[in-house]
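Example 3.2
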Amino acid sequence: MKVTIRRMGNSQGILIPKPILAQLGLEGEVEMEVQDDVLIIRKPRKQARVGWAEASRAVAQAGDDSLVMGEFGNADDSEWVW
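Structure, written as tokens:
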């Protein structure tokens, strides 16, 4: 599909047809980058660790946050003076 680059205020842009946006599930914000002379537009990637804090709180509230390996120290720790 060919589209025309149009003037939009002080910038230029293209209009993406609504069926294409719907097919890709794009709305609101997108990520855009250039790789090897190709313009790539994609859904924003989820940020790393999004929701981890809430999930940790839920695990703690459920009482399911015990240590998997238990407490253990190094054999030579008893020689240390703290």
